[in-house]
């Protein structure tokens, strides 16, 4: 199966029983409590599951780590990838206590995870002060129609593009 330019390995995926899915989601919720009560960050948790086993888990760590990218999903994906010694998490599912933000959604695509399970809805996140939908609305606009200004430095375009071309020409390149 080709997913966004990458040939995913064909792995047999078995849909878990509902009781297992609930168990994994409850683990994500438990991690969310752990992170929140420990002062790590917002009430968000995630687990990555492969072949019925949790291979990575995490909670939001933004405040504790002073890392705006340390969302639960990114933390869980990093842990799972380290544990499996593989950046490609094909054959894995991710359980998140709420719908992921655009950064985490993209991280899920990059990790090639097979399926997302979520519980809370975007409006639930907004109701507690996390307006992820604002970023989704921004990203739906053209690059130059967003609140964040962006500018192409055309004078160094050729130098930048040469590096891209060097990647394509790299003999031992591993596509991902
Ligand atoms: Zn996120």
Nutshell version of this structure?
The chain has 176 residues and is of the alpha+beta class. Helices cover 42% and strands 17% of the residues. The site of zinc ion has 6 residues, from helix 4.
Describe this structure in words.
- The protein is built from 7 helices and 6 strands.
- It has helices at 18-37, 62-65, 72-84, 102-111, 122-127, 132-139, 157-169, and strands at 2-3, 6-7, 45-50, 53-59, 92-98, 115-120.
- The two termini are 14 Å apart.
- The longest helix has 20 residues, at 18-37.
- Helix 3 runs parallel beside helix 4.
- The strands form 2 sheets. Strands 4-3-5-6 form a 4-stranded mixed β-sheet. The protein has a two-stranded antiparallel ribbon with strand order 1-2.
- Strand 3 (45-50) and strand 4 (53-59) form a beta hairpin.
- With 176 residues, it is of the alpha+beta class.
- Bound molecules: zinc ion (ZN).
- Zinc ion is lined by residues 71, 73, 100-101, 103-104.
């Amino acid at each position: 199966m080709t997913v966004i330019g990458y040939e995913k390995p064909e792995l047999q995926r078995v849909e878990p029983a509902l009781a297992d899915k609930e168990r994994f989601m409850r683990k994500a919720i438990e991690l969310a409590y752990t992170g929140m009560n420990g002062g790590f960050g917002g009430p968000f948790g995630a687990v990555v599951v492969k072949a019925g086993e949790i291979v990575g888990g995490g909670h939001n760590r933004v405040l504790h780590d002073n890392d705006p990218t340390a969302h639960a999903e990114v933390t869980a994906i990093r842990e799972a990838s380290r544990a499996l010694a593989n950046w490609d998490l094909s054959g894995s599912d991710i359980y998140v206590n709420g719908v992921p933000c655009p950064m985490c959604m993209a991280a899920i695509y990059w990790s090639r995870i097979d399926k997302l399970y979520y519980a809370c809805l975007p409006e639930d996140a907004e109701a507690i002060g996390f307006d992820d939908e604002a970023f989704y609305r921004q990203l739906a606009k053209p690059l130059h129609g967003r609140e964040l200004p962006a500018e192409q430095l055309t004078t160094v375009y050729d130098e930048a593009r040469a590096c891209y071309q060097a990647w394509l020409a790299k003999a031992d390149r591993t596509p991902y």
